[in-house]
Design brief:
Elements: E1 13-19, H1 23-28, H2 32-40, E2 50-54, E3 60-68, H3 70-75, E4 90-95, H4 100-112, E5 128-131, H5 138-156, H6 164-178, E6 181-186, H7 189-192, H8 196-202, E7 210-216, E8 222-227, E9 229-233, H9 242-245, H10 253-267, E10 273-283, E11 295-297, E12 303-305, H11 313-326, E13 331-336, H12 340-346, E14 351-355, H13 358-367, E15 375-377, E16 395-396, H14 405-414, E17 423-427, E18 431-432, E19 442-443, H15 448-458
Parallel strand pairs: 1-3, 1-4, 4-5, 8-10, 8-13, 9-10, 12-16, 13-17, 14-15
Antiparallel strand pairs: 2-3, 6-7, 7-10, 11-12, 14-17, 18-19
Length: 461
Amino acid sequence: MSLTFAPATDDALPLTLVAKDGVDTFVAGLSKPHAAWVEAHGFKAGLGAVLVLPGADGAPEAAVVGLGDAKARARRRFGTAAARAKLPAGTYRLETDLTGPALDEVCLGWLLAGYRFDRYAKKPAPKAALVAPQGVDAARLEAIAAGEVLTRDLINTPAQDLGPDELEAAARDLADRFAATIDVTTGDDLIAQNFPMIHAVGRAATRAPRLIDLRWGTSGPTLTLVGKGVCFDTGGLDLKPAPSMGLMKKDMGGAATTLGLARMIMALDLPIQLRLLIPAVENAVAGDAFRPGDILISRKGLTVEVNNTDAEGRLVLADALALADEEMPDLLVSMATLTGAARVAVGPDLAPFYATDKMDADALRAAAPRVADPVWELPFWPGYEPMIEPGIADLDNAPKGGFAGSITAALFLKRFVTDSERYVHFDIFGWQPSAAPARPVGGVGQGARALLEALPGLLKL
């Protein structure tokens, strides 16, 4: 699926954005018939509201979309995107006083409102097209939309059709498209190459575990992304109940988001050296599944007591992070659908993140609202370190008690980043539970746009 702007044309219909407090001024500038039409329809410019203005022959001559008020816009990201499905077929050009991030949000929302996951059931796409307005970097927004499409498609695909093999294929497709290199370590070779925890988590599945290692760029600062690629999570021997297992096709949302972000970076040709690591596994139940009480020796040499086989994501990430840390990149970022505790803390809309460097955290917080990608900082709180130290081993993968579950998981991962000075971890949800403008129910990227927006400052580009 390609989400792009329409070519410029002289026949494009004007599409005017009007705020709630600007209706009177807008109406005053219309012809008498159009002014009467607006008043007759009681148009109040609610966020995403649409009114088509007819010409003398009754065909659409123009359209107006409501911007609502500041409160409505703050409560509903991409609110104007709902208008796209309501507009009749045609090509439109924006007429608005919006500039900068506000205009970018409208345009990106328009693109994303065209997304449909139709692999298994056809869904009608909106027939209204938009010419990129002046002042908008159309190529950048199209690259961001394409990365988001990749992320959503991967998350939405059920595990029967997206296991470690298919996740590797998606990475290889990306490498081929952008002339990146890729290396994959699979099955028992994981043991030989010292990735014991990735192997332990994935060995029970019929689809072999693997570590995907993609590299792109030959000069500039170094950025390493690590994405959790658990293609389905049964919980292992600590089997999840059915209600908790229903959405586990999305447990590779961290991998999907980092792949989408990598696509954005490469499409925009950012002057960096990018590395993407994805431990891709399925956490299955079989005779050789890893067990509660097992003690695993990680790539880092740290021992880990398995107190819950359903806390497997941090195990596979740990080996990948240890590998990433050996190169000491300028910035190391992990993304994972890691804990239910993060959802309890901030809900599905916000992407909580942790940062070892205050300036990195400040940059992400500043960037997120500019691109309508909300994030929220949580702390690497050292007071909780004893909770992940079981005594019988160096680390506990599932501390008892249930308190601060997202923080203790982040602290666990941080133990495997000892040489890199700057580490950021995102504990994302990766799923839109109810339909919203430009975000249908299903897989969704979180944190990628905020990180992309912050990268020039983070890496001094």
